[in-house]
Amino acid sequence: MTSDVPNHPTTNPAAHPTTHSPTDSPSRPAPGSLTDVRGLRVGHATLYGGGHPGHLTGATVVLAPEGGAVAAVDVRGGGPGTRETDALDPRNLVQRVEAVVLTGGSAYGLDSASGVVAWLEEQGRGVRVGPDPSHVVPVVPAACVFDLGRGGDFKARPDASTGRAAVEAAARTELFAPVQEGNVGAGTGAVVGKVKGGIGSASVRLDSGITVAALVVANAAGSGFDPETGALYGRFFQHFQHLQHVEGRQNAYPSPEVHEEAQRRLAEAAAENGPPPLNTTLAVVATDAELTKAQAQKLAGTSHDGMARAVRPVHLLNDGDTVFTLATGEHALAADNPLALNEILAAGAELVTAAIVRAMLAAESVRTPGGTFPSYLDLYGK
Predict the structure, then answer these.
(1) Neighbours of 84 (CB within 10 A)
(2) I need a labelling partner for 339 at 20 to 30 A (CA). Which of 154, 168, 236, 374 fits?
(3) What is the pLDDT of residues 271-328, one digit of tens each?
(4) Is residue 211 very low, low, confident or very high in pLDDT (cuts 50, 70, 90)?
(5) Confidence of residue 251 (pLDDT cuts 50, 70, 90)
């Protein structure tokens, strides 16, 4: 169903009730969520309709536990828009960050991080730089997606107040509160190829007891499904059994009649929308394993494989594809196994694929003065 009015509040609900004890790991129905990594919280600020005419954008903040998480980044797209990514280089000083910002609004939207920096400073959270506990500099890495004009107003974009709203929403959530998916936060104006994109998330607990999870803003120039059949690419790369149970490979191919009608509707929307704009897919991959910055950077790099499985083509010049990683350090890797990191590397890629599938299935169709963006489910059904 196409929506002309906002389906979500400006910020996500303060919290979802949870039955998890703070000392217990979650027992979440598949496919899980980024917040299954203990201590991570996610908040969205959504700008669409209501008091935000011309907007179809927003910001999402991943808030680390107090004291921060080891962080790294890997940028593969040819047109990235980022902030503070140099600080995450393993050769540089900063070891931990308190938050990561994902935002719409292209380079303009990077101002969202300023609101997060201000909030963290008020909490006394950041890199200590002086004798007083308040003497901190919050290092907040950020990356943006291109969604300018999709709500009808090219100048409608997130700013510092949007980032602050998102981090405050994150701070209000309970531990293990599920991530809201679809047309929210940085995914509000996201588009994958010709269909609506958005926020998606997934997680897994490995046999070692380590949790790995991903959150994605799916907003790619490439397609998330096979143009010859309509089947979602990512559905054929579900390795973990619980993800297969949710998304499944069975019935992955729509009927030829459904596919033909979907292609007709997509062609109509594309003709109305004009030339395809710039894009970018963003991800945060997190684990409760104890990783060095170099190991976290390796995880960021291999997690890009998950994008390549779910979107084709990927990492183009008009994409700014970026993966951040966060490691909270609850579980040490097996000291007697030099390859212990491998299972985490493999899981990161799997979960990015799963999160992109989730984003496309959670997205809702939108029609604004800036264009018509049908969802995959509206085109192909369940």
Answers:
(1) 21
(2) 236
(3) 777 666 678 999 999 999 999 999 999 999 999 999 999 999 999 988 999 999 999 9
(4) very high
(5) low
What residue type is 74 in one-letter code? Answer: D
* Burial profile 21-33: b = 16 or more Cβ within 10 angstroms, e = fewer: eeeebbebebbbb
Pairing of strands 211-218, 136-137: unpaired
Cα dist from 238 to 142, 148, 173, 204, 358, whole Å? 29, 33, 29, 12, 12
Mean pLDDT, residues 357-371 taken together: 95
Rounded CA-CA distance 143/160 in Å is 14
CA–CA distances in Å: residue 164 to residues 11, 12, 48, 171: 10, 13, 17, 11
- Structure-token pair, residue 381: 């059904």
Over the stretch 82-118, which tens digit does the pLDDT of each residue have? 999 999 999 999 999 999 999 999 999 999 999 999 9
Provide the terminal-to-terminal Cα distance of the chain, rounded to the nearest Å.
Answer: 13
Is pLDDT at 11 greater than 90 in this prediction?
A: no
pLDDT at 16: 29
Characterize 335-369 residue by residue with b for buried, 16 or more Cβ atoms within 10 angstroms of its Cβ, and e for exposed.
eeeeebbebbbbbbbbbbbbbbbbbbbbbbbbebe
